[in-house]
Amino acid sequence: MTAIRNLSRVARQALLSSPAGCGCQPLTVAVRSISFSPRQVTSDASFHSVSFSETDHPKVLITGGLGQLGVGLAKLLRKRFGKNNVILSDIRKPPSNVFHSGPFIYSDILDYKNLREIVVNNRITWLFHYSALLSAVGEANVALARSVNITGLHNILDIAAEHGLRLFVPSTIGAFGPTSPRNPTPDLCVQRPRTIYGVSKVHAELMGEYYHHRYGLDFRCLRYPGIISADSQPGGGTTDYAVQIFHDAIKTGKFECNLKPDTRLPMMYIDDCLRATLEVMEAPADTLSMRTYNINAMSFTPEELAQELHKQVPELEVTYDVDNVRQAIADSWPMNFDDSNARRDWGWKHDYDMPELVQTMLNYLGTDTCVARAN
């Protein structure tokens, strides 16, 4: 700042000493305004998020919004906070129904400047960061997964801290590894994942907690189990067999599973997942004993899911062709989540068990199939 003041003083002197009418152009000194970023943080910096009670409604940005969860979350949040208060974003072109359902913008999480402009121009107060490459897809392209899942996260963390946002970053059962206790898996235990997706999620958990303690960032995180949804296609995750089986049961009556029949994993219907996400974001900060929680609803194997489906679709034929990569990933993950801390701290409670899940999925997909055939 001393250098800038000296430059300004020289400029003024030059202008005052210039002969009148000499035709000289005024001397202009360009001064760049630099705002705070954690990348330039001082040792005594402290930041605080704007709490929900301080505003009428949060102004929400969802990154990676065209994935499995983003569209559903936007629909839920728009019902609660108003259509124009929730902005969906992605690097892909949205389908017509998504584009016309509420605000949508292009957002590349690897473009730091673009992200800052979006947050500032739209006065964002809550940010849900869903941009990520999932487990099996990430293993096929580790460099891209590292860039999106880690570098992109760093951009999000810096911008959230700089602008006092309340930040939600989802984690996953994939954040655990073969040395973690598997049945049940508690909130706090050894985490040594074997996939780039899992490693990046452990990194996200720890970085978020660090930013919370270091900069006061209001960081909140849930470890999702496998999420089952009827209104989106499988996205390359290891648990996606539990979505694909419903599509195939309706369309062809045949399903080939890429995991062993006795592979037990925790699962959740998407409505429970989205509700849990909203509930933890609305929870008063003083009720949160930690910043990253397990949440769970049910735990089953492919064989158990197929048996439940057979009650509704007796003609379904299920075969198994095990994908060794996906199986190795699944074998390193929890079989069941201990989510007692979430249930105690902020009242988490799931609504869907396996029978309700199967009936809901079949009703949804069956109706869609009938409409498609009629069209």
Structural overview:
The model is unreliable at 1-36, 41-54 and 370-375 (pLDDT under 50). The protein contains 13 helices and 13 strands. It has helices at residues 2-17, 70-81, 96-99, 112-121, 135-140, 142-162, 196-215, 241-251, 270-282, 302-310, 324-331, 340-345, 354-374; strands spanning 60-63, 86-90, 104-106, 126-129, 166-168, 171-172, 218-224, 226-228, 254-257, 265-269, 292-294, 298-300, 317-320. Helix 2 links the parallel strand 1 and strand 2 (86-90). The strands form three sheets. Strands 1, 2, 3, 4, 5, 6, 7 and 11 form an eight-stranded parallel sheet that branches. Strands 8-10-12 form a three-stranded mixed sheet. A two-stranded parallel sheet has the order 9-13. Helix 2 (70-81) crosses helix 9 (270-282) and helix 6 packs parallel to helix 7. The protein is α/β, with parallel strands linked by helices. Residues 60-295 form the NAD-dependent epimerase/dehydratase domain. Its EC number is 1.1.1.103. Pathway: Amino-acid degradation; L-threonine degradation via oxydo-reductase pathway; glycine from L-threonine: step 1/2. Pfam families: Epimerase. Catalyzes the NAD(+)-dependent oxidation of L-threonine to 2-amino-3-ketobutyrate, mediating L-threonine catabolism.
